Every structure is written in structure tokens, then in C-alpha cells.
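From the thread on structure requests for the teaching lab: each student submitted one protein with a one-line request. Submission from student K.M.:

"Model Integral membrane protein from Micromonospora chokoriensis, C-alpha cells only."
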Amino acid sequence: MLNKTERSVSLAPPLKGSPVTTTAASPGISQTASALRRLYFVRFAFAIVWAGVTITTAKEVGPLAVALFVLYPLFDVGAAVYDLRSSRATGSPTLLYVNIAVSLVAAVGVGVAGASGVPAILRVWGAWAVVAGLVQLIVGVTRRKMGGQWPMIISGGISVLAGGSFIASAAATNPSLTNAAGYAIPGAIFFLIAAVRLGRAAKGN
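Reply posted by the TA:
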């Protein structure tokens, strides 16, 4: 029969940060980090290919150029859905739902703006870049303890600035979609850096 001292020790809860707590918490974070790492590699590859194709075809506004500018936010929707399913256990999904909604609106908006010309596309694209960048920045801040999120935070901030420049460039004498297409390249590089940095978190370290 346990004495009073033994009972008090055996019933004591594990201390915060003890091996029991860490072991219980780490699998969810590790699995999310691994899923995000795969997603970031895919986003890197897509953005590089998209930018290369779009830069060569966006010199004039045609059906192909408009379709490519619609495709990018639609791909962002798919990425956000994957992110949402992969990270339910590690944070609030509210911002990801916002990202999905904003990207869907942007895809429709770009499609409609295509009939009005380059300035209209740049305004819609710029507004989307601002909002999506803010979401990415905030999500990165909330996930910073996971590791590998500083590239996402920086990329989100750059997206906000780039979006503002696209909106401003819509008022230029001869606005072009080329710079808007090139915007995807820095984002792709940051996705690659984040994927590499998430390798440690994906292993549970």
C-alpha cells in the first residue's frame, strides 16, 4: 500500500516541457512540418515554371496570358486547401479560409479584368498580392515556433509591397504584365528556402 508521500508523487502532473509533454506534442508539429515542406517544394516548382511561361507570353494581353494569370490564384487556392487539411492540429484555419476566398475572388476578377486590358488586370493582381501577402505574413508569424517560417514572413511582406507597386504601375503610360509575372520568382525562392529549413522540424527536432 502506498504511503502518503508516494501517492502525492505518483499523482503529480508532468512538468511543462518534460519528456512526456514534448513527446505528446511533437508528432503533430512534425507531421505538419513535413506536409508543409512537400507543399513548399511543389509551390517552388510551379512558380518557377509559371513565371517562365508567363513572362514569354504576357507581352500582349491575349487568352493565354489571361488564363495564366487566372491559373496562379487558382493554384493558390489548391495549395491553401492542402495546407488547411495538413495543419488543422497546429493552429486556427481562419486565415487559410480567408486566403482561399480572396484567391477565388482574384481568379474571377482577373478573368473579368482581362476584357478591359492590362491596367485592370494589374489592379486586381496587385490587390490580391497585397491581401495574400498579409495573410502569408500573419500565418508565418503564428507558425514561427515550428521553424522555417522566416522566409514566409519576409515573402509575405515583399508581396504586400509588390502588390502596391502593381496597382501604381497600372496608371503608367504603357503598363506591362511582365513585371507582375516576374513577381512569382522571388516568392518561389522563398518557398524553396522555407522547405529546406523545415527539414529539421519535419524530423521532429
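TA comment: The mean pLDDT is 84. The two ends are 41 Å apart (CA to CA).
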